[in-house]
Design a protein that fits this description.
By secondary structure, the protein is mainly alpha-helical. It has one domain. It contains 5 helices and no strands. Helix 4 runs antiparallel to helix 5. It is elongated and about 65 Å long. The chain starts with a helix and ends in a 7-residue tail after the last helix.
Length: 164
């Protein structure tokens, strides 16, 4: 059952990354069009807002896949010199603390999104309702925290010091 759930998370994270890539293309197109038309006196209205919303999606959506593929930056100056047991303890603590952190991010983002939804807040220029973007951030944080939780479980149950 756990393997099925983990496979589901892996596939979902790939889809989120694909959507993040589409958001990156849209962000780039909006920025380029705005730069091209601004000197002509026709800047895109709300380009700054759209680039901000899309930028948040570009960063949030691939977080889980980046964790799965171990593509985050890591600095391990001292870690290679530690024993396997010490590496295992450090990796377990790291995964656990990161899980707690991203669960907190999920909780706070959900609360914030619900608050701005109830208030009916919109963006200044285009009047876009933006609570869905905050909910997407919360969902991405939840997905990342679940993957970090699996990393924690895998670390404490494996015989090796490193996460597979």
């Amino acid at each position: 059952m756990i393997f099925v759930f983990e496979r589901f998370l892996r596939n979902l994270s790939k889809w989120f990354t694909l959507i993040g890539g589409v958001a990156l293309l849209a962000l780039t197109a909006i920025a380029c069009i705005n730069m091209a038309f601004r000197p002509l006196g026709y800047p895109l209205k709300g380009a700054y807002e759209l680039v901000g919303f899309l930028g948040a999606m570009v960063v949030a959506l691939p977080l889980a896949y980046t964790q799965l593929s171990r593509s985050h930056i890591s600095v391990d100056i001292l870690l290679p010199y530690y024993s396997k047991r010490t590496k295992k303890i450090i990796n377990a603590i790291n995964s656990f603390l990161c899980t707690i952190f991203f669960i907190t991010v999920t909780w706070q983002s959900t609360q914030y999104a619900t608050t701005i939804w109830k208030r009916g807040e919109t963006s200044e220029t285009l009047r876009i309702i933006y609570y869905p973007f905050v909910y997407v951030l919360a969902i991405c944080s939840l997905l990342l925290s679940l993957i970090l939780l699996f990393d924690f479980i895998r670390t404490i149950t494996s015989n090796k010091g490193e996460i597979q």
